[in-house]
Amino acid sequence: MAFDMAMQIFELSKKFPVEEKYALTDQIRRSSRSVCANLAEAWRKRRYKAAFVAKLNDCVRGACRRQAEAAETQTWLKFAVKCNYLEVSLGREIYATYNRILGGLVNMINNPSFWLIRE
User: Fold this and answer.
1) Number of other CB atoms surrounding residue 38 within 10 Å
2) Which CATH number does 2-115 carry?
3) In the structure, what pLDDT confidence band is assigned to residue 25 with cuts at 50, 70 and 90?
4) pTM of the model
């Protein structure tokens, strides 16, 4: 889901104005891709409970890093809608999907044993 959203954001952001290249366009692409990359890193560590839990614990102080990236993406989506680069309905749809992604991340943090590879 996170990968699909990152790709959708990439395609949509191609239509953003040139003057947003180093601001909104790069930022929303970076944060949406980071959600996937950080989740993949944690996912690969799920073979060993201690490593998986440690990776999750690295991001529990305050807001989880992956959660922070997803929330950052949501903020950039708000900017894109307010600047009329995205339709309101599409912005809401993508924002809601990021809420589901955040919910999944919280579930993984709260129930890490469920996600471990069983030997």
Assistant:
1) 22
2) 1.20.1440.60
3) very high
4) 0.82
DSSP code string of 26-69: HHHHHHHHHHHHHHHHHHHTTTSHHHHHHHHHHTTSSS-HHHHH
**What are the residue boundaries of the structural domains of the chain, listed by start?**
2-115
* pLDDT for residue 61 is more than 50: no
Rounded to whole angstroms, the Cα distance separating 81 from 35 reads 21
**Tokens linked to 113:** 């044993």
- pLDDT over 70 at 81, yes or no: yes
| Cα(115)–Cα(66) distance, integer angstroms | 16
Backbone angles phi, psi at 94, to 5 degrees: -65, -40
d(CA 44, CA 87) in angstroms, rounded, equals 36
